[in-house]
Amino acid sequence: MGNQLDPASFSTQYGVRLLTESDIEWVFALYSTNPQYFRHCGVPATREGVLRDLTLCPPGKASEDKYFLGFFDGDKERLTAALDLILDYPDEGTAYIGFFMVDGTRAGQGLGTALMEELFTSLKAAGFDAVRLAYEKSNPQAARFWQKNGFFPQGEAAHEYGRIVVAHRAL
Question: Which of 3, 12, 26, 48 pairs as cysteine with 79 (C-beta 3.0–4.6 A)?
Answer without folding.
Answer: 26
